[in-house]
Design a protein that fits this description.
It is a single chain. The chain has a domain at 2-97: 3-Layer(aba) Sandwich (Aminopeptidase). The chain is 28% helix and 37% strand. The chain has four helices and seven strands, in the order βααβββαβαββ. The chain has helices spanning 13-27, 32-35, 80-94, 109-113, and strands at 2-6, 44-50, 53-60, 66-71, 99-105, 118-126, 129-137. The strands form two sheets. The chain has a four-stranded antiparallel beta sheet, with helices on both faces. A three-stranded antiparallel beta sheet has the order 5-7-6.
């Protein structure tokens, strides 16, 4: 697996869109208009490749908000999500952020806790899926 930190540009846009469409739209039933919220152009993205194919992605906004972490189903439980989050956290540290935060789907809370994230809010619904705010001080 290789990791790349990228912008949402012509070369990477189709790869990011494909991964997120397969995971969020097709698998989780999220409306594409919700997932593709117009913030991709201003975000920094991470892409994970395996054998030349994009298998995972995530993004971080300039306010430290991490989101849109998606791993193709057949590549889960093999470390791709960990690589995405590690790269996003490294990018946040390079940018001098003191804090990052995210809205975790409830089933993923333990994954983020392994990296030191703590709960910092109440459960809320986003795109019909239960989430909870989490944060990490760097």
């Amino acid at each position: 697996m290789t990791t790349q930190v990228v912008k949402f540009e012509r070369r990477y846009r189709p790869v990011i869109i494909n991964i997120r469409t397969l995971v969020f739209v097709d698998e989780q039933g999220i409306d594409a208009k919700i997932d593709f919220d117009g913030l991709d152009e201003v975000a920094t993205h991470v892409l994970i490749f395996s054998q030349g194919n994009g298998i995972a992605t995530g993004r971080i906004l300039d306010d430290g908000h991490i989101g849109r972490i998606a791993v193709l189903k057949e590549h889960r439980k093999h470390g791709a999500g960990t690589k995405v989050l590690q790269a996003l956290l490294a990018n946040a540290q390079e940018k001098g952020f003191s804090r990052v935060y995210l809205g975790s789907q409830i089933h993923a809370v333990d994954f983020y806790k392994k990296f030191g994230f703590t709960l910092c809010g109440e459960v809320f619904m986003d795109a019909g899926i239960a989430h909870i705010e989490m944060e990490l001080y760097l």
